[in-house]
Amino acid sequence: MHSQLTLRPVEAGDQPFLLALVESTREDLAVLDPNVRAMLVCMQNEAQVTDYRRRFPGLEENIVLADGAAAGRLYVARSRDEIRLVDISLSPSCRGQGIGSRLLARLQDESQQSGLPLRLHVLHGNPAGDLYRRLGFQPGATEGMHLSMEWQPILLKE
Q: How many C-beta atoms lie closer than 10 Å to residue 49's C-beta?
């Protein structure tokens, strides 16, 4: 397990890492010619980030650092009504080590402190859905190929 997790804003020099991260989540592209695969990954990444920025003004795009090394990305949008986990992706070598759980716990702490719900969506069949359920996220509406999920802060009695 990595001892220190930090976040830093995405920088222009992060593009190769981010493209490799996107490619690592698309096993279906592995059969394609490498040049075609690279072009499709680049197009998908650009379309995805453009859509995120359009739908979530003020989107915070961060690189996850585990012991100082790039381990993934964490995109979060905050509004008066919610904290929205827009995207969390980890490099294959960093998956299954508790990094995602620790990042989610930080967001849950923020949700608890702010009194705002923490919301996300997950692709049906994505193993991350099991993690979200274990951490107390409740399933909501189905939105196309995605399931919306929400974690509510615990209201403490005074």
A: 19
Q: Which pLDDT tens digits describe the chain residue by residue (158 residues)?
A: 557 999 999 999 999 999 999 988 777 666 777 788 788 889 989 999 999 999 999 999 999 999 999 999 999 999 999 999 999 999 999 998 999 999 999 999 999 999 999 999 999 988 899 999 999 999 999 989 999 999 999 876 55
User: Which overall architecture, per CATH, does domain 5-151 show?
Assistant: 3-Layer(aba) Sandwich (3.40)
Question: Is the overall model pTM greater than 0.85, yes or no?
Answer: yes
The CA-atom distances, in angstroms, between 37 and each of 10, 17, 20, 24, 135 are 23, 15, 11, 11, 35
